[in-house]
Amino acid sequence: MRQSTLLDLIAGLAPASAGAITFEDDRSKARCRMASASCFREDASFPWLTVTDNIAFGMREAGIAAREVQRRLDHALDLMGLRDFARAYPAQLSGGMRQRSASPARWCCSRG
To answer: Measured between alpha carbons, how far is 69 from 109 in angstroms, rounded to an integer?
Structure first.
């Protein structure tokens, strides 16, 4: 079994074809009960959207209020050191900066 397959099974992203996953002798503990997001090796940004729009995309699609989107966006840009690149497109960023801009797009979308 590949590592990514095991992680998909634990997260509930894929059904098991056979067997069971247990943790500390308890099958119920082996299921992830938290909201999860996938993290790809590639940055998975939309090339036609700016850093700001890529980060805000999922929040807007999830129906998060505009004021809250802006608050989370401001926090993410500051936290990831991308404030000066907010209007840049993915092709204008280094590989590391693209990864840093893709990370908040995943975790900002949670409703918490």
So the answer is: 9
pTM: 0.60
Q: How many CA atoms lie within 13 A of 72 on its CB side?
A: 24
SS3 assignment, position 19: coil
Residue 67, H or E segment: helix 66-79
The per-residue pLDDT for 110 is: 57
What are the b/e assignments for 27-53, b being 16+ CB within 10 Å?
Answer: eeeeeeeeeeeeeeeebebeeeebbbb
pLDDT of res. 111: 47
Q: Who contacts 82 (Cβ-Cβ below 8 Å, separation ≥6)?
A: 51, 76, 97, 100, 101
| pLDDT-flagged residues of the chain (< 70) | 1-3, 11-12, 23-24, 26-43, 103, 105-112
Q: Which residue has the tokens 């809250």?
A: 68
CA distance 39 to 10: 15
